[in-house]
Amino acid sequence: MTIDHNQRLVTSFHFPDIPGYPLTIVYFQDLQDLFSALLASLLPLVPHRVRFIKIEHTFLAEDAIHNLGNLKLTQSNRMPDPNNPSGTVVSTSTTTFSMNKNTARNLCQQFVDARYIESADGKPDQLFKQIGGVWRPTSKGITIFDWFCQSNGLYQDQLSELHCLITGPLLYLERDVKTDLCHVDRATTEVVFCRLIGVDGRGKKGPYSEGAVGIRLQPERKLNGRTYHDTFTGLTAAEWLRDNTTCLDLREAVNMATHFVHYNLIESVNADLAYMNQFAACKLFQPTPISIYQLSERGQDLVDTSSSSRGSSQGKTDASSSKGGVNESNRHKLEKILLDPTLRLLFRENLRETYCEEGLAFYEQADVIIRDAKAMLEKKDSDDAMNETLSQSHVIFNTFLAPGSPREVNVNHKIRSSLMQRMTKAQALDATVADTLKEVTALLETAQDAVFKLMATDSVPKFLNNPAAESRLVQAGVR
């Protein structure tokens, strides 16, 4: 016997009212998911003619706007029925996005601003129009799509073909959970700055020809009778940040670069006064070809220190780790890592490199659900609001916890069985929505704690030996 559990989640957009941002902006994670779902719906990408030349891997603006009108993302998992050994449970989560043509066009413009897509005609004016345009995904867009496919267990025939268009790594910037703004604390800014210059923390600085390893510094530049060394334009830095980090638009790139100046990593040698007069918020940094910057003494010292950092920590073991269980020291270190935006950025990179990022992804997504659910239960919110949170918990279950799920995390059989029984059965007639949400939340907390212990036991010791994070680990008192 097969039991179908179809949990339909209709997602509405949340437009945060953030000073300096348009009211139509979509949160970072939503924007990534929407773009990836759109690209999946457009595959396979085929050649289109642009000025008598066929351009590979492209799509039409009209097709993108049409598909955004009704996007669906479905996840299904088959598993044994916990109440009937001969039966099968099919748990399905469907996320539906719908919007009108004008909203779809504005959303596509955000994809352009985020550098997920670019015009195939090569024109510098990147304005997304409803008709007549030919577009293609960028290296950044394909990387975002690749992450999405890995996260959701999607297998696209053309994905391996699109991989050849990826020109370099993409730096994932940590964001504030409430405001969705990028963290720009000193330590995070220094990590981004070193990547901009081309130093990854392992003592490696690749040549410019390798792609997104850093910007090209001009060895000598003469301005107003003086000679400056290792300079670059504001436009070069802003373009690199937009193309090679998860910045969503020019403003986020300018904000990050402004903090390079604020933390005395770079200094201006020629300001663009006209741009400054037009945009008062850009007094420290102007993203133009006229504005020129050079490494400050502190910035050069930071680059030299990072460049000379070698694998001195390789082969070391963490004396606090214990085979017989989770050492409290490692738990404490993991707590510090998760609370520190810079360490979390480096920890996430390390997990992605070792193909075990699903534990952190589950921990963070479950944390949001648990926190929201507890707040709803305390405020005694409406059943509709609680059902929305229950729907989101089903998505997490199908992604991370169901047997054979695309990002299945390692939890013990008892926890997984309890979750299967709860998530695959209908709400009891004598139970309220609040009772069901309370039960699901408790089970998610149990699974979250198990994953936390696993990361503390397995992932933290490996991270402590990562030379790319060595300097920051010492600064934060984790090593």
From TrEMBL:
GO biological process: intracellular signal transduction
Region (Disordered): 303-328
Stored SMART domains: DEP, RGS
Pfam families reported for this sequence: DEP, RGS, WHD_Fungal_DR
DEP domain sequence ranges: 211-297
Segments of skewed composition (Polar residues): 314-328
Boundaries of every RGS domain copy: 333-466
Record InterPro entries: DEP_dom (IPR000591), RGS (IPR016137), RGS1/SST2-like_Fungal-DR (IPR058855)
The protein's name: Regulator of G protein signaling-like protein
Protein species of origin: Fusarium equiseti (Fusarium scirpi)
Lineage: Eukaryota, Fungi, Dikarya, Ascomycota, Pezizomycotina
